[in-house]
Design brief:
CATH class of the largest domain in chain A: Alpha Beta
Radius of gyration of chain A: 17 Å
Structural class of chain A: alpha/beta
Distance between the termini of chain A: 8 Å
CATH topology of the largest domain in chain A: Rossmann fold
Shape of chain A: globular
Oligomer: homodimer
Largest sheet of chain A: 6 strands, parallel
């Protein structure tokens, strides 16, 4: 497998959602970890719900609703304005360990790369630029550009269009099995980053490639290409 | 509020998913409770994923995939055939406590009622007939009839068509806050059955009516109509 282009998921794959911690600390103090856990459990399923209901709202709006719901469950106070403020933290998350090195090595190997995120265009630009990674990517693609979240086909379709190639020549890289499943259902190939966890395929879709994290991806790709 | 028609969710609202227990016992023995918990955590989000991806598959197929994934996570063996066999249990679930009495009382109060389920038409008929509840419902509406799961608009649209009334004159009754949210987003009203749990609205959508369970619904409706 030598993909024409590699499309990376952003939240949880390139960038660390735990970076919301200090924002939550300011907003809900000691409830911080509990609210972060409740938020993480809601965020992705709610984006699916919004797409299934055809009631798309940008990622930061869904994040703010999920934050308020998680806070209510934890018994913490979080106003609409405070939730919107915490959601701004989604544009300033740190890259996960190994991301910078892995992307640099993939670049040396001649791979063309993009971000394919459920975020907004502005948010994805801010994240990538803030982490000093802008030059690594040919394209920054955001769900907000098509008004639906992954796994909607129109989101995955952006990747083939950007690289001007067939869907099967794009490799979607994600730490989320549900994202790999969505990509494969659409026709992309999918690489799953396990980060030490056990594979639990979603809807029966197995990844085409597995690596521990972004830093392990260059070697996994070279080995797969050599087969 | 005096709705023209009341549409009931089936799984978890009228019928008890714990009824899969004996089917799981036969298939995975001592792993039964663990697999049931993992299955329940996957089932609903996976139906949203399928609808968002526009990769609809009937409820029993998604259930079988979720059962196999939950079994794999638990370290239990569950073949494709065995998973399909357990999924058949979805057509033989017992009604939850208070359902028969509540529906009878609603019928005495002159309410017109339907089932609006994520299941298949055959499955919903089997469930309702098996529980001796067929005469309570004017309509048995199944997601399979429109090839999408709740919260897709086309599923909720079936209710207004069946009762020949405006969306806002239908009351969707569900034990699931995500279902109430979907119904309200579409334009139906929503009643949430709390079963002793604390309200955690999904995507900011609050229910129009709250009752403990189906047996508490007739009184809650009379009180709401008197206001």
């Amino acid at each position: 497998m030598r993909p024409t282009g590699i499309a990376f998921d952003a939240f949880g794959t390139l960038f660390d959602l735990a970076g919301l911690g200090p924002w939550l600390e300011r907003a809900v103090g000691g409830y911080r970890d509990e609210v972060l856990a409740g938020f993480s459990a809601r965020l992705v399923p709610w984006t699916w719900h919004a797409t299934a209901a055809r009631r798309y709202r940008p990622f930061p709006e869904i994040a703010a609703l999920a934050l308020r719901s998680a806070a209510a469950e934890a018994g913490a106070e979080l106003s609409e304005d405070e939730a919107a403020e915490v959601a701004k933290g989604l544009t300033e998350l740190p890259p996960l360990p190994g991301v910078a090195e892995g992307l640099e090595e993939l670049g040396r190997d001649g791979h063309r790369m993009a971000v394919l995120s459920n975020g907004t265009s502005g948010g994805v630009h801010a994240l990538v630029e803030g982490a000093g990674l802008r030059e690594r990517f040919e394209h920054l693609l955001a769900a907000d550009d098509v008004g639906a979240f992954k796994p909607a086909p129109e989101v995955y379709a952006m990747a083939g269009r950007a690289f001007d190639c067939a869907a099967r020549d794009v490799l979607l890289v994600s730490a989320h099995a549900w994202d790999v499943a969505g990509a494969r259902q659409y026709g992309l190939r999918g690489a799953w980053l396990h980060r030490g966890s056990t594979l639990a395929p979603v809807l029966g879709e197995e990844p085409d490639l597995v690596a521990a994290d972004v830093s392990g991806l260059p070697r996994a790709l070279r080995e797969a290409s050599a087969v």
